Amino acid sequence: MQMKQQLFDLFQAQIRNELESAYKYLGMAAYFETTPFKGFAGWMRLQAKEETEHAMKFFDYVHDRGHHLQLPAIQAMATEYASPLEAFRETLAHEQFVTSLINEMYRVAVEVQDYAAQILLQWYITEQVEEEKQSQDFVDRLETAGGDSASLLVIDKSAGKRSS
Ligand SMILES: [Fe+2]
Ligand SMILES: [Fe+2]
User: Fold this and answer.
1) How do the domains of the chain map onto residue ranges?
2) How many A from CA of 163 to the centre of ligand 1?
3) Any idea what the Cα angle at residue 74 is, between residues 118 and 90, rounded to 5°?
């Protein structure tokens, strides 16, 4: 059964938002590729891939519910940042913004009594806790490292160990 229009509009918009997230993190990967921080570059590349998977999970779902999608434009993204800390602060702020979008989708799913959509959205709500935690951890560690190159390279190395 199709979703109510109000909820479908949010799902459709969120497919673009997740792909915009992927594009944002790809921009950060492009920035890190121009620095010695290849671990962060790899981490951002994987983050972009994960955001694409988030988009595709919604993509599949709206079709399961019998909708016909439209795909609006995706905006250009920065590939220049002042420092690793600036990039991860932007990542954290972006994830907090995405959490607010997912929460709003859930609020509407409750309002229109779409129980199936609520169950799908619960996965994203849990995922956002993890996304915020990961970026907060990097912000905390990068703030602690400050301008110390050796410490920054240690954090970069640990970021490079991410496998999925
Ligand atoms: Fe996402
Ligand atoms: Fe995310």
Assistant:
1) 5-160
2) 17
3) 75
pLDDT tens-place string over residues 57-75: 999 999 999 999 999 999 9
Among all ligands shown, which has an atom nearest to the Cα of 52?
A: 1
Ligand 2 center–CA 144 separation, angstroms = 24
Going along 34-100, which residue ranges are E strands?
none
Provide the token pair at 46: 């994987």
CB 63 within 8 A of CB 86: no
Cα separation of 29 and 42, whole Å? 7
Residues less than 5 Å from ion ligand 2, measured at CB: 131
Q: Is pTM, for the whole model, over 0.90?
A: yes
Q: Residues 5-160: name the CATH superfamily.
A: Ferritin, core subunit, four-helix bundle (1.20.1260.10)
